[in-house]
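User: I'm putting together a teaching handout on how multi-component assemblies are represented. Below are the sequence lines for each component of a complex, exactly as they appear in our records. Could you produce the 3D structure of the whole assembly as structure tokens, so the students can see both representations side by side? Please keep the chain order the same as the input.
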Amino acid sequence: MRFPTKTASTGQTEELMDIVQKNVKDCYQCLKCSAGCPLTAHMDYYPHQVMFLAKMDLYHKIIESKSLWVCASCMACSSRCPRDLEPAKIMEGFRTMLLREREQGRVEVTNPKGVPRQALISSMRKLRR
Amino acid sequence: MKVGVFICWCGSNIKNMVDVEKVAREMENMPRVVHTQDVQYLCSEVGQQDIIKAIDKHKLDRIVIGACSPRMHEITFQRLLESKGLNPYFVEIANIREHCSWVHTDKEKATIKAIDLVRKAVAKSYHAIPLQSDLLGVTKRALVIGGGIAGIQAAIDIADAGYPVDLVEKESSIGGRMAQFDKTFPTLDCSACILTPKMVEAATHENINLYTYAEIEDVAGYVGNFKVKIRQKAKSVDPEKCNGCGDCITKCPKKVPNEFDEGSSKRKAIYTLFPQAVPNKPVIDRDSCIYFHTGKCGLCQRICKTDAIDYKDEDQIIENEYGAIIAATGFDIKNPKSLPEYHYGNHPDVITSLDLERMLNASGPTNGKVIRPSNGEAPKKIVFVQCVGSRDRNKGNAYCSKVCCLYTAKHTLLLNEKFPGTESYVFNIDVRTGGKGYEEFYERARHKGAKYLRGQVSKIESLEDNENRLLVRGFDGSLGEQVEIEADLVVLATSIEPKAGSKKIANLLGVSTDQDGFFSESHPKLKPVETQAQGIYLAGVCQGPKDIPEAVSQASGASCKAIILFNKGQVKSVPTTAMVNKDICSGCMQCKPVCPYEAISKDYVIERIHGKEVRRPVASINRALCQGCGACAGLCRSGAMDVGGFTCKQIMAEVDSL
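Assistant: Of course. Below is the structure of the complete assembly, with chains in the same order as your input.
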């Protein structure tokens, strides 16, 4: 199979960088993240493969994957990455990017008094454009 | 005064970003410049000949060069001037490469900047004064700090060359880490068998003085003339009287953790480090000894048949002068307790590679048997984890420890050989086999049955079954799935770190350390044994992780540098030091406290003033210690202090020219 050229636009790579603030190119495929992930049985791309795809700018594979939504954000991978790349954060970064794109980031607050301020601020940070 | 200006193309390094012909042309307008030229490679023979021809033709006495950094070729051009009978400090170099062509992308602006830089250098050269080096004598005696294989090799080389060496070792015996190992890769030589001949040679060589159980207390002086204070710690045992019978050790009632076995066994308060220790005379560890704490016991003294135990022994400070010092302080390994996912310290069957090495060693805590520390039984399934704390920017050291891939392969080989039927699994990220015979060694380990799994271990936990085994959760990159292994023993290949206390030695010597604590060499490629402190050299792992052949090579290299120094018998001081005009100096001595090298002292001059003889204080510079930093010159209120090669007149001329 001819190795595909990158499918991520510059805008997408910049946006991911803006959200996660991590240099994905540092990943040296030690496989420690996949070793500790409790949900690999239900994933099509393992965490280390998601990191590899992100490194190679093949975002479409990640976006179309099951893994992105199976990830439970348990942070086992993030706590063990020797390069401090936090795969859980990268996954969250992709989910955030998708939600923003699909305009599903608009949250309707029905009871403003009941929402903790922390939740408002964090969702604003995550889903703003 | 006749100035010649030479602008180098440096091939295309300068030429493609600076209009070199234009720079040369502009210099023709400067006063006293009688010759300008642009040359393709000034450092080449052709370029050097061009300068020589110009000097002959125009009777030049000042040379200005626009080229690469003086760090590259200042010495080349200085030598050229010397060969033509000119003072070497009449050459001035403008850096139009690292400071101009290499850092800018606009050719027009870069050219203007280059013209400014060369013009500045020409203005400076008008005021150049001749400078002379002093010749410093060299004490032809070397000091080697650290008695491991690197220190021993360096000492033997210098001693064989005919010069006296003092070898100072912190522990009670020389040998270092190699004495702890069982076998060495890739030859599988018994480590002690190849080490002990060298240890004996070092102990019996007529030119080597061994100071064991001694530490460096203070270092002063400069290259060729280091004054060092060595603290010979009180051994409490008279080595002349002791015959090494060992009765005192047998009878001693106090047991403490044995550092030689990394804490996995006990030693007595009076002890020798290992059976082949050199010197093989015990010392008393006063921190643990009952007598030195409470005044009771004293068994060893009563038992000793030669009356060698001396409780009244005291630390001694020995002062010596040395011409060169070699630092060979070695390494420690990182404690993996700081990486909790590996369960080290929580389960006795998670050990480090050095623990395993000690078990394999016949004089180790288990007499050569590899057992599970939890129940003393032979392990059947052993899991090795690589890169524990190495290559880990997050919670460990960012660098690779270089030797672990090979020593783990060695461990799997030794286990398969000594205890057939054991299964070994190695979790690795990469297997680094850079040395001679190393790839073949790795192949051999795989042929003998070691199973290498490309992937890391995420967690190790207790299985909590009847046999108290461990569960290793990792990933196999080849099959592409998570794997779990039920292990009897887990061996962690932990990161190498500089020896604790080496920072103190570095400070005493005035050698800098890098961000990981390893000693900094002068140039990582071309000067791996020298430091920026002249006369101080490096050998072994203190400079960076390396294997035994590299440590030995580096030790021979460092000793060679010391031998060169001794053979020459004298060393040229760098003449760009501070200079004091004693006529103007008021003797206020405000300069003395700012000198970081303690090079300034108070001196007296006797003058006739108004017919009377007056004795007044002035500052005096030790030109060997002075590094020409200029702090004193900047501070001097009367303008009496100046720096050779960078005089106030020269600096003001540079500023005025811009």
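A couple of points students might notice: Residues 7 and 58 of chain A are 5 Å apart (CA to CA). The radius of gyration of chain A is 16 Å.
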